[in-house]
Structure formats: structure tokens, C-alpha cells
Specification:
Strand content: 5-15%
Shape: globular
Order of helices and strands: EEHHH
Distance between the termini: 34 Å
Structural class: mainly alpha
Strand order of the largest sheet: 1-2
Helix content: 40-55%
């Protein structure tokens, strides 16, 4: 069971504690923002929801870095989140990726 969700660059926040960075993910309707927030707040523990939220979180971090406001909203504090997101993506590719 997930005990904490890495949501800031300075460590982890307990489930249910959104930091000031959360609104700057710029979650769109197609990113299922309600589901992402519900997972972070611990309102759902469904494995499918948790994986989807994790992937949406990583996707938004990536898009904000390469296409968004970049460092304008203190993205520099998100190094830990980028590290976790990249680790998740690498594990997914190792397990489910197709060799090019």
C-alpha cells in the first residue's frame, strides 16, 4: 500500500496533503484531474486508478517541462518528482516496451 505520494521536491507528503505545486501540473480534462486528486488524497486505492494517476502525473511533469511554463512556477523544486516519474517510465518500458 502506498504510504506517501512524492508531490514535492523536498521529500514526500502524507496521502491527502496536496502541495502548492499541484495546481501547476495544469491537468486537463482528458488527464482525469478528479481521479489524480482522489488517488493523492487517498480516496481511492484501486490499482488501475493509481497507475493511471501516476502516468498522468508523469506526463504532465514532462509536458510542463518541454512545452509549458518551464521554470516560471518553481518547477526547479520538482527534481525528486522527475526522478520518480522517469523511474516509473523506465520500469514500464522494461516490462512492457517493444524493442524498436
Amino acid at each position: 500500500m502506498m504510504e506517501s505520494w512524492p508531490i514535492s521536491g523536498t521529500g514526500t507528503s502524507p496521502i491527502g496533503a496536496l502541495t502548492h505545486h499541484f495546481p501547476y501540473l495544469d491537468l486537463r480534462k482528458s488527464d482525469h484531474p478528479e481521479l489524480v486528486q482522489a488517488v493523492i488524497e487517498g480516496k481511492t486505492n484501486d490499482p488501475r486508478d493509481r497507475v493511471l494517476a501516476l502516468l498522468m502525473f508523469g506526463l504532465r511533469l514532462r509536458n510542463n517541462l518541454f512545452h509549458g511554463a518551464k521554470w516560471a512556477y518553481e518547477l526547479r523544486d520538482q527534481r525528486s518528482n522527475f526522478t520518480h516519474a522517469n523511474s516509473v517510465l523506465m520500469r514500464l518500458l522494461e516490462r512492457h516496451g517493444v524493442a524498436a
